[in-house]
Write a structure and sequence with these properties.
The protein is mainly α.
Amino acid sequence: MFTFIYKHMLKNKNATVIASLNSTHLCFLNSTHRHLSENVSSKLTCIKALFENYGFTDTQVSKLLEKYPFMLSLNVDRAKAKLDFLHSYGFKSRDLCQILAANGYVMRRSLDAYIKPSCEILKGLLKDCKSVIVLVKKHPRVMKYDLSKAVVPNIELLRHYGVPNSRILAMLKQQPTSLLNSANRFKIIVREIREMGFDPGKSPFLGAINVWSGLSKETRERKWDLFRMWGWSDDEILLAFKKQPTMMMTAEEKIQRVMDFLVNKMGWNASEVASYPNAIMHSFEKWTMPRCLVVQFLLSKGVLKDLTLRSFIKLRGDKFRKQYVDRFCVKFPQVLNLYGVTEDNRLKLQLQFLHRGGNSSYLSKKVSFELTSKNSSNLSEKLSSKLTSKNSSNISVDVSSKLTSIKGLFENYGFTDTQFSKLFDKHPSIVSLNIGKVKPKLDYLHSFGFTSNDLCEMLEADLRILQRGLKNRIIPSCELLKSFLKDNVSVVVAVKRYLRVFSYDISKTLIPNFNLLLNLGVPEYRILVLLRDQTGNLIQPTEKFKAIIDETKELGLDPEKRSFFDAVRLFYSLRKSTRERKWELFRKWGWSDEEILSAVRKQPFMMTASEEKIERVMDFLVNKIGWSISQISYRPLVIMHSLEKWTMPRCLVVKFLLSKGVLKNNLTLSSFIVLSEENFKKRFVDEFCVNFPEVITLYGGA
């Protein structure tokens, strides 16, 4: 009844709503219900006050009750207990608002039977409350289920079949819906996927489970029959599904449109399409159609040889445009229409092609030379002549005039002809710059101490610097950095090392992050070195930075030592899932958690080595040379040295000399791996090369 009354209140939205209720809708209610009109206002006040205590605004409460009117009938004490628990667990007011807006039915779930157990089970799997909060915010539905009867047995089943734990946890964090299936249904799905030949150790296995659990059996069979109708064999459908499981999530209407276009209009055979199922999934209008039309046109002109559908559909946007549009847009401007290039961008693409010399059989590369000619006063005339002399009248002569003006502007700041040519070659859109807006920015940067070489290097890497606001980004960023680093030279170094510094209001992150490190007892001079050399670390969002600092502290590193900052840089550059995967890799090779932790404390950057390199180094040292895990973990730097140029030749030399009995058997790995090249060569090669010339060959002909 509260719900009915509140819905009427929402509809009327005026101060006399209760009176309105008494005189209209309540006439249909019997006398035992009419007393609700007198109580609903006070109930609404209580519920509103409850949510406001947790930081909800009036607007948020109004939207929440409008979407979930049943909340008006909640028991205030029970609702408060649920919000108390979630708030104490770490959910902030904005988190609670986001969760309840997405799934207000969480408030109907029992605190002791669902909400608390769900949080504890998820924490046991994900190891920390923050990960639980992130998961629940993305997928509030997890609070609706008894996870002990769904998620837990389903994860155990995946582990039983050998699915890597890191992949299971990634699935839980990113796509937990499949894991919320009942244990019996999930077991059936896993059995069906295994029977199709999917390898549990590879990522498509979980992708196929997600697809299979998200589609009814009837839908799967209907789509399977649809592919058959287009000429795919069962083997081709299965192979395509193994390559790209999510192809089955594509709407039947889209499958029909894509197959009709590719087979009937473009002439590709069904098997060709089946060999690259991603073609089904790409945006038809924005990706597949324009690419096919461009390629078909170029094939008809004889400028392309026969090629596969996969060879051009899979290319990134910039690579396809460069290979098939930029390359031919002057000789065949039709490709611009076919690819959907706007008028604003056509000129830039054609001019870029011309500047780079275009197709040598079509356009002379002298244009590039003329752009860098020292006699730039005739640049406009020469470029216009060159453009019009080759049937390129579609390119406005005004561009050459604009180019001359832009070139003159940069020359005023010390740019050489070669520097400007390189800049224009990388960013032909430079011709569209507004000189009136760009000049004050260059004036400021040049006066601050950025040389022409600095500016050329920066703009070649990111021309968007000149799109940043002078007063609200460039000047404030430089001045704030100077207040910390004290001199302009250090600011120039910091900016050059992290060009995105002008993309943010860094005062919102740099100051709190700097103070956070100071409060930890980190020496100020170390923070300043980090700011100058690794600027990006200190201007990331404070919440993320604090999380990185907390993880670093958990390693037990001393904030006053350099290794602490190395670990901060490590956590900043590597995703948590990547670090966990590498941790598991060291475990696989027999390292204990204590050995891995000790090694990371000594040399955090060992974790930046690729997994492939870690495998090769460990295989060589353990299986081929015979060193123990404890020897390797004691000197983790060996993981980072070049295997072919450093570790392998040294180990081969030492192993040979040990076999000849001229070295002591208690020689440690660290005793020769850490030596400089000069010292190693002197001690182990030069000293023994007369009696044992083999060491010269083993060391690489030293």
